[in-house]
Amino acid sequence: MLTPEQTHLLGWFREHAASQRAAGFPGRALRVVTGALGLARRHLSRDASAEERLILFSLLADAGRLLLECGHAHQAEPDLRLALDLAADETLAVPPAAWADLRQYLGAALDAQGREEEAAEQFVLALDLLETLDPPPLASIAGVANNLGMIRRGQGRFEEAAALYRRAQEIYEAMGPPHALDLATICNNQGSLFWAWSQPDLARDFHLVALKLRRDALPRTHPDIAQSASNLAAVYHDTGDFDRAGRNYLRALEILAHHLPEQQETYEIVAQNYADLLEQSGRAGRADRLRHRTRQKLLKARERAADRL
C-alpha cells in the first residue's frame, strides 16, 4: 500500500519525467520513471486499490514509451503488455485514448523487433479505437495509418498500403502548413510504394512532391532533402533518365557530406548508385574516381568518429 506521501512523490516523478522528455532528454526522463516504477512495485501488492493500480498503469505506460524512444524496444514490450493487462480491469476506467496510445507504442515496439504481423495487429486495434473518439485525433490517426502502411508495403500488400497512405495524406493536407513535413513523409512513402509496385510515373510524382515540400520547409542541407533527392534519382536512373538522375544523386551527396560520419552508410549507397550510372553512361573513368574519393572520404569520417570515442 502506498502512503499519501509516496502517492504524491510518484505524481511528482511523473511530472518531472514529462518535463525532461518535453525538453528533449528522454534518457533522463526514463531514469526518473524507472526509479518511480521501482518504488511503486515495492509497495504495491495484489490487493492494491484501483487508484494505486491506476498509478502503476500510468508508470508502466510511461516507462514503455520512454524505453521505445530510447531505442530499447525489446525492454519496452513487457511494460506495455503489463499496462494493457491492467487496463483490462474495468474498475480502472482507462479512457479509450490511453488504450489507443498503448496499442500504438506496443505496435512500434514489435515492429522495431521485426515482428511485423504482431505489430500490424496492434496498429489496427489502435486505429479502431482512435476512430471512435469524438473528435477524432486526426494527427494520431494519420500517424498510425502511415506505420501500418509501411508494414503492408513491406509485406507486398500494396493495395492496403495505398489506402492507408491515402488516408494519412488526406488528413495532413486538410491540416495545412503546420503538417507540411508530415505530408512530405507520406508522399515519400507513397513514392517508395509505387516504385515497388512497378508504377514508376506515380513514384516519380510523389518523390517530386516530397522533395519540394522538404526544400520549402527545411534548411538546404537537411538529410531529409537528401533522402528525397536520392529516391528521385533512383527512379530517374532505373527509367533511363540519366541526366536528371545524376543531378539528384549529386544533390544528395552534397548534402550528405555535411552529415558524416552519421550518414556514412547512406552516403556510400548513393555514391555507389551514382558510380553505376556513370559507368552505364560510358564514363567509367569518372565512376572509378568517384569510388576512390568515396573510400577516402568515408575513411576520414570513420577516423574522426573513432577520435571522438
Distance between the termini: 46 Å
* Assembly status: single chain
- Provide the CATH architecture of the domain at 222-309: Alpha Horseshoe
Task: Fill in the CATH topology of the domain at 222-309.
Answer: Serine Threonine Protein Phosphatase 5, Tetratricopeptide repeat
Indicate the radius of gyration in whole angstroms. 23 Å
How would you sum up the major sheet? none
Strand proportion, as a percent range, falls in under 5%
The percentage helix is: over 70%
Content-based structural category: mainly alpha
User: How many DSSP H or I helices?
Assistant: 14
**CATH homolog superfamily of the domain at 222-309:** Tetratricopeptide repeat domain
CATH class of the domain at 222-309: Mainly Alpha
